[in-house]
Specification:
4-stranded antiparallel β-sheet; Pseudouridine synthase; 10-stranded mixed β-sheet
Length: 353
């Protein structure tokens, strides 16, 4: 199916640095891509919900949710999780199950070749989407070709500067299908009854516009800089404020990763402050006026997203002459693919999505 006319594929977006003449294979097997989810809190020990830390192999998050519901004999709506995790991987994440007075089943009996319960505990509230601190990744790159000195220099750049905080392929569906459906829903007024799919399409539309604007900031060299009139996002928060001037304090806070330049996730915005950066964003978004009107009509409120993603605790070693192992931590909502495209842009081969 062809791409939507407004959609630009992620691999065509601007890069922070000149691509290296390097290539590798990754995700050849689930063990090559491991993710550990950190909620930032523990089960509180009481309540009608059970929090379960589950390790899954080659299984998607929604499939595990349905499996949990069947095992606990509860409706699927009583299962929740903080974030979706990749299928072709080994991932450790938390789920919540609302038992509402029911007796705890034997959670150890839930474990099999694909899923394993690592720990569990009672909790007052269900897990909500996005209620996590960060994700830690272990990535194995195989059949590596390229200058190792250049690769290590690039890794050091990534460690110090982070990477552009693009939404990657997962957000847009196979061949941009979610964007095609978003156009039908927002512009062609097609009714989407499925609430989950409707949410996916709305998110994809906003992500597309954010990516395109971020790509412009990357091209201009300002994706990791604070501009006068910038809408500054506080680290680990949705709070933001306007920088009328860029002084030493702002620069220091930027260097310490306490604040970030941000871009719009379009929707209804009742707190507009007109600055040069705002006008630049509005001029860009005017190319998508019908999309933005559709998002407002759908009831979405405007939000902000950091233009840069910090790659924390980045370490690496060459396991063999042609194998590189990386470990790093990303904030919630940031993508490991965004790191890979700055290290091995357009040459990384996916064996399976």
């Amino acid at each position: 199916m062809s791409l939507d006319q407004d959609f630009i594929k992620v691999d065509q977006l601007a890069h922070a640095w000149t691509p290296l003449n390097a290539s590798a294979m990754w995700r050849c097997q689930p063990e090559d891509f491991q993710v550990f989810e950190d909620l930032g809190f523990e089960p509180d020990g009481s309540g009608e919900h059970v929090l379960l830390q589950i390790q899954k192999r080659d299984a998607n998050t929604e499939w595990v949710s349905r499996k949990l519901a069947k095992f606990a004999e509860v409706p699927v709506r009583d299962i929740s999780y903080a974030g979706l995790k990749d299928r072709f991987a080994i991932t450790t994440q938390w789920f919540s199950v609302r038992l509402a007075g029911k007796v705890n089943p034997d959670w150890d009996a839930f474990s099999d070749d694909e899923t394993r319960v690592l720990q569990w505990g009672l909790h007052e509230r269900k897990l909500k989407r996005g209620s996590l601190k960060n994700n830690h990744f272990t990535v194995v790159l195989r059949e590596l070709q390229g200058d190792k000195v250049e690769l290590e220099q690039r890794l050091q750049q990534i460690s110090e500067n982070g990477v552009p905080n693009y939404f990657t392929e997962q957000r847009f569906g196979r061949d941009g299908q979610n964007i095609k459906m978003a156009r039908q829903m927002l512009i062609e007024n097609k009714r989407i009854k499925d609430r989950h799919k409707r949410g996916l399409y709305l998110s994809a539309a906003r992500s597309m516009m954010f990516n395109h604007l971020l790509s412009q900031r990357v091209t201009a060299g300002s994706w990791n800089k604070i501009l006068p009139g910038e809408n500054i996002l506080l680290s680990g928060s949705r709070s933001h404020f306007i920088a009328d001037q860029v002084d030493e304090t702002i620069e220091q806070r930027l260097a310490e990763w306490d604040i970030h330049p941000s871009g719009p996730l379009p929707g209804q915005d009742d707190k507009v402050v007109v600055t040069a950066v705002y006008e630049m964003e509005q001029q860009y978004l005017s190319n998508y006026q019908d999309w933005c009107e559709g998002l407002i009509k759908a009831g979405l409120k405007a939000e902000r997203r950091s233009l840069r993603s910090r790659v924390e605790r980045l370490t690496w070693f060459f396991q063999d002459d042609d194998r590189l192992v990386l470990e790093f931590t990303l904030d919630k909502g940031c993508y490991a693919n965004g790191v890979m495209r700055e290290l091995l842009v357009a040459t990384v081969a996916f064996t399976r999505s």
